[in-house]
Amino acid sequence: MGARSSATRPRAIGRAAGLGLGGALLLAMLAGCSVEDVGSKFGHFGWPGPGVSLQAHKMYDLWIASVIAALIVGVGVWGLIFWCIIRYRKRGEELPVQTRFNMPMEVLYTVTPVLIVAVLFYYTAIVQTDVDKLSRNPDQIVEIKAFKWNWQFNYRDGMGKDANTVASTIGSSDVIPILVVPTHEKIRFEETSADVIHSFWVPELLFKRDVMPGKIRNVFEVTLDKEGRYVGRCAELCGTYHAFMNFEMVATTPEKFDQFLAAKKAGKSTQDALTAIGEQPYSTKTQPFDTRRGTHSWNQGDSNVAAGK
């Protein structure tokens, strides 16, 4: 009995060491680091980055935590595989003892994946609910109106299609439309399309949503926490000039945003209003593409959209 125990103990110690070595190294690398620190050290594990909104941060944290959990599980699985390769390698012609089943092992590899999936589902549902959550009284309401092939941004005095537009910005083939929004405020976007399905996408928001024609108005909210300029695009193939359908989002302080909106209400152009708050009047992250088209059809289209047709 004593000989058997002494022979088994080194194998047990070796197995525990093999399984725990990779996990210990991973945990040592992650010790004392925030989720964003860990993500930045490893290239965000394929995610675009932490984003510029509170909702984006939650999605980023979920992604990084999921990848870390997957790596820990992977290290354990890799450890078991290599341990089995070494422990049960062929030592002769005699066949090893054949075992029909191992109830503890079967319970382990059934219950463990179910628990992992349940935990991931739980946190995914929480983050998804937070990202899709709508407040009763958002600070700003912006109507996104897409059309082939540009954007119109209407600043509204209330929610829903019956609210009034107090200021508007519309793009053309010569001027990239600029969407000015404040940081640290709840911004409600209400989307509508004048023709086909488009998609409102700012990569730094880590979020996009289709813009539907007809009576469907997709609605979502974001709270930006970082100032800057960010390129926006249409992410839904919508026709010949889909690739040219760009815009730029300018996130600024609430004070500057109020000044911008006041200037727009006073009748100033978007470029003059941007200059008034110390911003570049035209886009800096993207530029109009040479579409080799005349301007007549675009101007007519812009007039139709501005008139709500």
TrEMBL record:
Residues 137-263 form the Cytochrome oxidase subunit II copper A binding domain. Its cofactor is Cu cation. Keywords: Copper, Electron transport, Membrane, Metal-binding, Respiratory chain, Translocase, Transmembrane, Transmembrane helix, Transport. Residues 274-309 are annotated as: Disordered. InterPro entries: CcO_II (IPR045187), CcO_II-like_C (IPR002429), Copper_CuA (IPR001505), Cupredoxin (IPR008972), Cyt_c_oxidase_su2 (IPR014222), Cyt_c_oxidase_su2_TM_dom (IPR011759), Cyt_c_oxidase_su2_TM_sf (IPR036257). It is an enzyme of class 7 (translocase). It comes from the Bacteria. It is a multi-pass membrane protein. GO terms for biological process: ATP synthesis coupled electron transport. GO terms for cellular component: plasma membrane. Its EC number is 7.1.1.9. It is found in: Cell membrane; Membrane. This is Cytochrome c oxidase subunit 2. It comes from Actinoplanes cyaneus. The lineage of its organism: Bacteria, Bacillati, Actinomycetota, Actinomycetes, Micromonosporales.
